[in-house]
Here is the input.
Amino acid sequence: MDLRIAVLGGDGIGPEVTAESVKVLDAIGRRYGHEFTYITGPVGGTAIDMTGSALPADTMNIVLGSDAVLFGAVGGPKWDNPEIPIRPEDGILKLRKNLGLFANLRPCKIYPQLIDSSPLKPERIQDVDFIIVRELTGGLYFGKPKRKWENSRGRRAVDTLAYTEKEIERVVRVAFELARRRRKVLHSVDKMNVMETSRLWREVTSELSVEFHDVELHHMLADNAAIQIVTNPSVFDVIVTENMFGDILSDESAVIGGSMGMLPSASLASAPPTDGKKRRRGGKPALYEPIHGSAPDIAGRGIANPMASILSAAMMLRWSFGLQEEADAIEASIDSAISDGYRTVDISSGGGNVMGTSQIGDMIAGRIRTVSYTHLTLPTSDLV
Ligand code: IPM
Ligand code: MN
Here is the structure.
């Protein structure tokens, strides 16, 4: 296949980890005979400094001309002043909105080899394997009015949480479809004891469950979900929730496995294909990014864990391009590097052979040539 990938590294460790994904994709290209063309452009704070915009028109054009987007991270202390009118985060938020990426899939699976890096007790987490489906283009992130102002009584600010039934239905449908192909258990997370949007969410979800009677649906309040994720996480299979709850609960989920550096994500404009075919038939590209941020404290030190980005590249191969074996090969290479004791510092828990970003990237890319894999290797393999 000839594929064009928009590579938007962004800020902080974003470009460092994304560069390792490119290495690994090149290794995939060599083994399986694909031609990947990478087109890069600025986004986030870096783009603000260069052009005054967090998502310059040139970058958006690169994105629209590509088959998929591999995204790094945005933000950093340099742009943290709440007074500035343009924020690095606008870059990713506009991309999500412009591309219609309403479903953000964040798989959370424990690597048994890394169980000691987790702050949670091993017996609580050993069977953890769930996926959060986070609504990504609505809710508090985008609702209008959204502003801060001042009058004679002082300063005020407002954000708006609004959902239409259509917005709820399409993302919950993605979650039901995923659950149907997994263990057939769906937890829908809301705050219906307080919010109207949550009551609508619950209503629409319950109505849709009639179509998916083979999937066991549970409604759960968001505060309770926050407790269950760290006390009883193995009960979850698929979790679906609105944008802000999904943001918070997915970061919380990342600590189950011990590091934010291990969790990938896919942002899609429709359900993942079931036919294993390339998905983008003339539509807009999907976007793949690690769930971690720009980690300014470690940026430029060459110690960031690139695995979340590399696993995001695997999701891209699987879901945008229908390249199952290639995705399996990436996941198996990571698995084998970890099994052989190679670690970045965030997952070292004092042991293992600790490597830098580029070294571990080389190590994973080097394994692609010979690694063998089965369809059971890792988190998302049986979804499609
Ligand atoms: C994430 C990030 C983003 C979000 C930020 C960078 C806008 O935290 O992808 O989870 O809040 O969605
Ligand atoms: Mn987040």
Remarks:
- The chain has a mean pLDDT of 94.
- Residues 14-32 form the longest helix (19 residues).
- Residues 74-75, 89, 92-93, 247, 291, 293 surround 3-isopropylmalic acid (ligand 1) (CB under 6 Å).
- The radius of gyration is 20 Å.
